[in-house]
Design brief:
Length: about 475
């Protein structure tokens, strides 16, 4: 990997402002299986030490003014943008997404640091009209304390800044465990954070055995907030573990997004939206369209147009020019996609495009469109997390709302219609935290991201994103 600044490729853990530990766990490039680097295999003991350093750093960091914290975060934002190409290269090497998409993620990741740098100055309290003439009620927001963050591999930069940005802005300190597949992006961000002047102990990154690190994070009484993005299965384990010390939890879990195209939709926009929502990051996002419901009047034409766009997609190593779909993250991911497609075909689905592993081999899978998909198929129940667009046929609005809501998940949903009454009805009836109306891309730092049902707890991004990291204190000033 060639970088303009090779010192951004950090392979040790970052604790209390120092780079510590030595390489044990291999980080590989999903495009070719080559080892890129080795990172330390930290366990409970090292995590406990990192938490103690974060606790020691908490008082002084919380005592700074919002404006002081804002200045440091703003410098971090500037450095992330200045080093965008290198971070994108590190990300593509360990995660696989095309370079342009990686650079887009760096912008997105940086936007949280910028937004929460601004927000640091505006964590306002409240004065509530008193219930008594001789008393006053004042509400202040104080930083919650040490935050533990566990993040996934699909957005190696943005899932870190979406948590660390607001936590640091609020005056909290953080111990973060990035995904084992993608620790290098996280470590590069920490290096830039140190250069920006984030004090020692305020942001710590540990790599290693997920369950050991997770157990320490969830049981250590010094940790006040656990913020997690990942699978619903692991999220449930972490919530249970946090119950013992009654930690606050923020959970961004799995999705099973419906994408609905009504007869009256603008079909060109719907096709564009479906491509963007479905195939971004090779289908490996928790807001990717997982079930595409198309009303019968436009079903065939939509399938045809979508397929012709999908046929144009170039698959390859993310560093190659013109590639829009990289490899999947690992062999298990490819196997899951393969299983979903085979199961659908066995139960009567028709492959319109793709439907098999890509000729390049390895972790590459062809972008795929399936027709005549029915709710009996595996793909309906489980998040595929791959480049497969399954098309279901429906007849009525009531029917599709019922189908769309028939899942334990509730993160993102999308639909296309030009009827304003229908837009309101459907948007309000969908049991989801996020609804894209005539739009396939919904992520932005200024809006609240999060799910209902088993997709999670809490919201990230926007002014709501601070809430997870502050405690509300009510002070009654009596005896006036
Ligand atoms: P995925 O299947 O997409 O990798 P996971 O939920 O397994 O999603 O992983 C998300 C994050 O959770 C990663 O950082 C992973 O290392 C971490 N993780 C996995 N298992 C545990 C666990 N038992 N305790 C704490 N963290 C875990």
């Amino acid at each position: 990997m060639r970088l303009k600044d090779p010192t951004l490729l950090r392979t040790q853990c970052f604790v209390n402002g120092e780079w510590i530990g030595s390489g044990a766990i291999a980080v590989t490039n999903p495009a070719n299986g080559e080892e890129i680097a080795r990172v330390p295999n930290f366990g409970a003991e090292e995590t406990r030490q990192a938490i103690e350093h974060a606790q020691a750093a908490f008082g002084p960091w919380a005592a700074r003014t919002g404006k002081e914290r804002a200045k440091i975060l703003r410098r971090w934002f500037d450095l992330i943008i200045e080093n965008k190409d290198d971070i994108a290269m590190i990300m593509t090497s360990e995660q696989g997404k095309p370079l342009a998409e990686a650079a887009g993620e760096v912008d997105y990741a940086a936007s949280f640091v910028e937004f929460f740098a601004e927000e640091a100055k505006r964590i306002y309290g409240d004065v509530i009209p008193s219930h008594r003439a001789d008393a006053r009620i004042v509400v202040v927001k104080q930083p919650a304390g040490v935050v533990a963050a566990i993040t996934p591999w699909n957005f190696p930069a943005a899932m870190i800044t979406r948590k660390v940005g607001p936590a640091l802005a609020a005056g909290c300190t953080v111990v973060c465990k990035p995904a084992g597949e993608t620790p290098l992006t996280a470590l590069a961000l920490a290096e830039l954070g140190a250069r920006a002047g984030i004090p020692a102990g305020v942001l710590n990154i540990v790599t290693g055995k997920a369950s050991a690190i997770g157990s320490e994070m969830t049981s250590n009484p010094l940790v006040k907030v656990l913020t997690f993005t990942g699978s619903t299965a692991i999220g449930k384990i972490l919530i249970e573990q946090c119950a013992k010390t009654v930690k606050r939890v923020g959970m961004e879990l799995g999705g099973n997004a419906p994408f609905i195209v009504f007869d009256d939709a603008d079909l060109d926009k719907a096709v564009q939206g479906a491509i963007a929502s479905k195939f971004r990051n090779a289908g490996q996002t928790c807001v990717c369209a997982n079930r595409i419901y198309v009303q019968s009047g436009v079903y065939d034409i939509f399938a045809e147009r979508l397929a012709s766009e999908v046929l144009k997609m170039k698959v390859g190593d993310g560093t190659e020019v013109g590639v829009v779909q990289g490899p999947l993250i690992n062999a298990a991911a490819v196997e899951k996609v393969e299983e979903h497609v085979q199961n659908a075909v066995a139960l009567g689905a028709e492959v319109v495009v793709g439907g098999k592993r890509h000729a390049r081999g390895g972790n590459f899978y062809e972008p795929t469109v399936l027709k005549n998909v029915t709710t009996r198929m595996l793909i309906t129940r489980e998040e595929t997390f791959g480049p497969v667009a399954p098309l279901y046929r429906f007849e009525t609005e009531e029917e599709v709302i019922r189908l769309a809501n028939d899942t334990e998940f509730g993160l993102a949903a999308y639909f296309y219609s030009r009827d304003v009454g229908r837009c309101w009805r459907v948007a309000e009836a969908l049991e989801y935290g996020i609804v894209g109306i005539n739009e396939g891309l919904i992520s932005t730092e200024v809006a609240p991201f999060g799910g209902v049902k088993e997709s999670g707890l809490g919201r990230e991004g926007s002014h709501y994103g601070i809430d997870e990291f502050v405690e509300i204190k009510y002070m009654l000033m009596g005896g006036l």
